[in-house]
Amino acid sequence: MKIGVLTSGGDAPGMNAAIRAVVRQADALGHEAWGIHRGYQGLLEGDMEPMPSRACANILQRGGTVLHTARCAEFHQPEQRAIAAEHLKAAGIEALVVIGGDGSFRAAEVLQREHSVACAGIPGTIDNDLPGTERTLGFDTALNTAVEAIDRIRDTASSHGRLFLVEVMGRASGMLAVHTALACGAEAVLYPESPDDSFETLVSGLNASWLRGKRSSIVVVAEGDTAGRAMAVGERLKRDYALDLRVVVLGHIQRGGSPTAMDRIWGSRWGCEVVRRLDRGERGFYVGMVAGALVAQPLSRVLEPQPVPPGDLGRMVSVLAR
Ligand code: F6P
Predict the structure, then answer these.
(1) What is the reported pTM?
(2) Are 17 and 111 found together in one domain?
(3) How far is the CA of 287 from the centre of ligand 1 (A)?
(4) Are residues 269 and 229 in the same domain?
(5) Which range marks the domain in which residue 221 is found?
(6) Which pLDDT tens digit goes with each residue over 88-129?
(7) Distances (CA, A) of 90 to 29, 94, 238
């Protein structure tokens, strides 16, 4: 069997580990792996070639994706998906492994439904916002990168007695923000799924900590928070409360860098698992991790609501900042 593999959407550390595992497990089972470049965009253009085992030498420890990636709006059009299916057929590729986030999995789900392409997904996004899995490739690395950056910001915040608002990525999810805030001992975290009115809670929390004698604070702001992005929240705090503060947007720094051991291990495990399942004739699934165990579920599960950060974590951030 020829098995195509692509990475799609935002790159995430650990994607290379997954590519390597797909290619080498396929080889070990007597299949031929094909690398599709630039995600669905490359698939539309027929930009693909056989990927032998040796093409994966020395990629395990590298961030980004050696197959490159893209966000491909054209794939929403049925006639474009038909072209993609034709390219796969012409190359004799019978199964497609998609490494990406929810948008990439939705595209795979439609491709399989419309054109009977056997699809399998490996969760790859720093946002950790996929239903049916507690982990996605890149989350652990991005979390550690954000924490390391905030540890540095903490030094200057305490030297100047300043408030810093630090914006982290995550799109509509507060998963990265809440875990970052907990790991770096932030005074507060603003995130979209918060049960409280984030802004009002933030102001009263900052007042309380000022009265307790705290002169510097770190507030982690999820880019998707309903109060707005960190810059807007900062402007509002300056205007209404005359606070001396600085805003740092960590941005794409969070997406780069060498993957942590955990992202390499799960990229490897998931890559092997999807190929073993395709080899057994399974299709239309994506792998994940629940309670430490490797799981698989139907691709259609991606249409379910995204998971929310565990309810107590956000509150814990404020309690521990006392
Ligand atoms: O989905 C991953 C992610 O990094 C989000 O956290 C962020 O909102 C988005 O991608 C940024 O995308 P781009 O690199 O296309 O600007």
Answers:
(1) 0.97
(2) yes
(3) 22
(4) no
(5) 139-256
(6) 999 999 999 999 999 999 999 999 999 999 999 999 999 999
(7) 23, 10, 60
